Amino acid sequence: MSLQLPKDVQSFIDDHARRTPPERRNIYVCDICKGHVITRDRDYGVTPFMIGCKATAGCEGHMRSSMYRVFDQSVAAEFEWYRPDTLDGLSDGEATHVKMGGLLLRRISHG
Ligand SMILES: [Zn+2]
Description:
Blueprint: H1 7-19, E1 25-30, E2 36-41, E3 50-52, E4 62-65, E5 79-82, H2 92-99, E6 104-107
Parallel strand pairs: 2-5
Antiparallel strand pairs: 1-2, 1-4, 3-4, 5-6
């Protein structure tokens, strides 16, 4: 059972899905520690241009999107963008983001 999105948001996402390869990779680079993380899109939707640093524990930098310009799209990803099945447990900000077609980020657990 997937989350019910407003009709206009869903049609935007469906259109985006037709034009976009699955599992698309992106790289985010931190402006302070210069660390980076590789993400993949598990679902289709909107991902932010900037996120808090995920590369270095305690780093207060911001990571900027490489706008999906990743040459080797088979590269392993450590994080994935996903659409939750429910808004339960999300903060107000997260819930608003998801209702507008936004995806959430989580670390991929291997094995
Ligand atoms: Zn950092």
